[in-house]
Amino acid sequence: MGKSALIRPLLLLAAALIIALAIASTFGTTAVSWRDAWAGEPTARTVIFDLRLPRALLAALVGASLAAAGVTFQTLLRNPLADPFILGVSGGAACGAAVTTAFGWARIPGVVSLVAFLGACGATAAVFILARRREYTDPTRLLLSGLVLNALFSAIILIAFALSPAGDLTAALRWMMGTLFGATWSDVVLLLLFLIAAMIVLVFIAGDLRMLAFGEDDARSRGVDVERVKLIGFVASSIVTGAAVAVSGIIGFVGLLIPHLMRLIWRRDYRVLLPLSALGGAILLVLADLASRVALPAAELPVGAFTAILGVPFFLSLLRRSR
Amino acid sequence: MLDVRGVSYAYDDVAAVRDLSATFQRTQLVALTGPNGSGKSTLLKLLARVLAPDSGSIAFEDRKLAEWPPKEYARRVGYLPQDPDPTFPMRALEVVVSGRAPFLGRFEWEGESDYEEARRALALVDAADLTDRYLDEMSGGERKRVFLARVLAARPKLILLDEPLASLDVSHVQQFSTLLRDIVDRTEITVIYATHDLNWAAAYADRILVMQRGSLALDAAPPALMRPDVVRELFGFEAQVVGGWLVPARP
Amino acid sequence: MNIKRRFIVHRSSFIVLLAICCAEPASPPIAVHRIVTLAPNVTEMTYAVGCGPRIVGTDNFSDYPEAVKRRTKVGGVEPDIEKIVALHPDLVIASASNAHPNLRRALAAVRLPLLVIPTDRLADISRGMAIIAQRAGCPTIVTITTALERQRRKRSRSPAVIFAVWTSPLYVAGRGTFVDDLFSLTGARNAVATTGWPQYSLESFAAHPPDLLLYPNRSVSRGVVEDLLRRAKVHVEAVAVDENVFTRPGPRVTLAAAELNRILDQWEKAH
């Protein structure tokens, strides 16, 4: 009961994540073995420790960030259809990326990531300010503002793409579909810092967020500072989503699907869902990235497609088996 | 126990509660009635600290609400809003044990004693058989009882219920009203509940408050209400008392 | 030590420190035996300077000369770094116009040197080949400048020409591109005024129809072009050109110039 309900699934998922990371580091488009890598054979070492491992870890971090943000948004907005991009984050990030491509700055390394991150944060701030009225942020207004802003961003993106140099367009489109191409250890460290910071914040307000699930007035009557919790929750989730998007583009389904998957299997209590969703998201994305790398021999497919291909059937089978 | 003095609250420019004063003691079942928009919900929210009054003061056990630390107040005063609907369906026991939240520290989880209290509360509302059932599998009446148990799980001294009888069919209204009466008599708790139904209120409550456009029009024991002239003045319709019940008068 | 000497020692050690910390790690002139190329034109350029046999892997789209088709393919827009690493190249060469922004980082992480060749203009081609030859130590010095000059024409009547890369929507070669340079070389006039590879509206096309519309013969079909002309309600002479030489700014661009001259000569004769 209570905390003990968390320990067992947590250990189970952590073990599954380690196994997933091991598998993702073992398989790829070239045949190298762990034994060679440990023995110091240069190709094997490079492929496993400089390519596959940082990429798998980055996939795990992106998946964890998106799933944690997803479950937080679903709780804050009291809406099961919320995902981390719903408040304009994806639109803002993609808009930033598209605009840099249109201006021809996309070639400069790091620019797209930085502008995407700023775009994501800027969009969330805009949505929040639009929805705020007399110190109160109505979840419905937030959703509507997010929807409207996303539509505006889509328009800007289409225009930017029309004006972009044709060569940069393909890379930009790939980014929008989500990609972990060129993942390095510095990416891993950066996103790890963001994720740890966000998780600390979210764990801090987890108890309050759980009470929010019963309604805002209800939570207020029980001593929860609802407006402050909403603000903190939104900011933490949006920042970590922005960081994930800056690194990997827009990878859908993880933030929406994983929280529901965890709810079907385990509990609906946010305090339990947060860490479990983070782990679940990590596992899904590691496996999806592996699939996107090895599915076709001579091409790398968009990872966002595989999060759906892997996640949806699993989800549907659980849905059918549940009450 | 609860002292309300000259409290007013307005939504934007619309006054919902005007200069309202009332006192509440222990072990009372108080029915709050009045037409729609008379300010019943707002008053309950003010008492529950969901809203803060624009003017006037509310004191609980001789201490102003603003001086009570929120969680301590929440341990003593429970609130049940209209139509509670947790976004994701949960089991009854989980729902009820969350009512123990005001007793938990920031990182604390519910312990055995909290689960004991939750079960006790479910037994109190005669819903022990619903413990492991999911909310979306229950009828309206069963859900209301589970949420009542949630409020009672903290062993509050005062509970505020916003329209708990609304949307219940007649047998459940009687069941619930009896339950409230029972709880007040057994645990010496004070219950203030908002309701539309004058008859059921009069049949069970110790005291009836009638609100009209934000002010208290009547604050008395039921017999004072069950009179055609009072009803005509307060509610604007012709009634007659038949067998202890108010019924519309035949034209 | 006296003051003067101490000052000299300090200054020189400062300079040495500066050199050590701020100098770019110079690529030592190691012999380049294994090359991976990431664009079709880069592949052809590498072959032209005699380093063809050293190529161990190319991108998916490289197909000339014939031998290239048998080389290991490492991918398209997002090349498979693992595959590249497994080929043990000494040098990776990419084209500036389609290199992935993260490519340099990705290759730096696995300690593979990357050479990026700009190929936007006609003059970049010879320059690019010289850079490749110098960097990789290739045997042949090649320039296409003379061959191109032989294709230079001055015409009494310059036809207005548009080169359409794609028809739906209409993307064309603008000013400041190697196609534009080809036009100038062969005495044609580029009907497009904007720079780069812009979109071209059907309206502009209808309002100021060119004398000639050129399109790549593999990516764009005749039917699509005729449909475009029908929609714009103009009668324009449309000619298909060899895609392999018209869309690759590489050594075979001389063939493109020759083909362009043939088309323009024919046009001049007919009008």
Written description of the protein model:
- The complex is a heterotrimer of chains A (323), B (251) and C (271).
- With 323 residues, chain A is mainly alpha-helical.
- Chain A has helices at 4-26, 34-39, 42-76, 89-102, 111-131, 139-163, 166-177, 185-204, 206-212, 216-221, 226-248, 254-265, 270-294, 303-321, and strands spanning 132-133, 136-137.
- A two-stranded antiparallel ribbon of chain A has the order 1-2.
- In chain A, helix 4 runs antiparallel to helix 7 (166-177) and helix 8 (185-204) runs antiparallel to helix 11 (226-248).
- The longest helix of chain A has 35 residues, at 42-76.
- Chain A starts with a helix and ends with a helix.
- The mean pLDDT of chain A is 86.
- Chain B is 32% helix and 27% strand.
- Chain B has 251 residues and is an alpha/beta fold.
- Chain B contains eight helices and twelve strands.
- In chain B, helix 4 (112-124) packs across helix 5.
- Chain B has helices at 40-47, 70-76, 92-97, 112-124, 140-152, 170-187, 198-204, 228-235; strands at 2-11, 14-24, 29-33, 55-60, 63-64, 77-80, 158-161, 190-194, 207-212, 215-220, 239-242, 245-248.
- Chain C contains eleven helices and ten strands.
- In chain C, the strands form two sheets. A five-stranded parallel β-sheet of chain C has the order 3-2-1-4-5.
- The longest helix of chain C has 20 residues, at 3-22.
- Chain C is an alpha/beta fold.
- Chain C starts with a helix and ends with a helix.
- Chain C folds into two domains: 35-143, Rossmann fold; 152-270, Nitrogenase molybdenum iron protein domain (Rossmann fold, 3-Layer(aba) Sandwich).
- Chain C is globular and about 55 Å long.
- In chain C, 41% of the residues are buried.
- Chain C has helices spanning 3-22, 40-48, 81-86, 103-109, 122-136, 145-150, 178-185, 202-207, 222-232, 243-246, 253-270; strands at 35-37, 55-58, 72-73, 91-95, 114-117, 160-166, 171-172, 189-190, 212-216, 237-241.
- The chains are: A mainly alpha (323), B alpha/beta (251), C alpha/beta (271).
- Chains in contact: A-B, A-C.
- The interface between A and C is medium-sized, with 34 and 35 residues.
